[in-house]
Design a protein that fits this description.
Structural class: alpha+beta
Strand content: 15-25%
Distance between the termini: 12 Å
Oligomer: single chain
Order of helices and strands: HEEHHEEH
Strand order of the largest sheet: 1-2-4-3
Shape: globular
Radius of gyration: 11 Å
Largest sheet: 4 strands, antiparallel
Number of strands: 4
Length: 71
């Protein structure tokens, strides 16, 4: 599953949002919390996601798709 697949709702701007803690996301994608943390930091630095409390707002789906294609 990709982050786009896991988005459960949209924020006020219409951006997809994942409402999972990092350890929950790691369990869902069969990874570790540390790997999820590093990956989210990379995606945040690339401007693809924004952390808002415990929510992960997917700002640039096109960037996320490129990362998913590489994996």
């Amino acid at each position: 599953a990709t982050l786009l697949d896991l988005a459960e709702r949209r924020d006020a701007e219409g951006k997809p949002v994942i409402s999972l803690r990092q350890h929950e996301l790691a369990e869902r994608i069969s990874s570790t919390r540390e790997t999820v943390s590093r990956s989210l930091r990379t995606l945040k630095d690339a401007g693809a996601v924004r952390m808002q409390g415990r929510d992960i707002v997917l700002i640039k789906p096109s960037v996320l798709r490129r990362y998913a294609d590489v994996e």
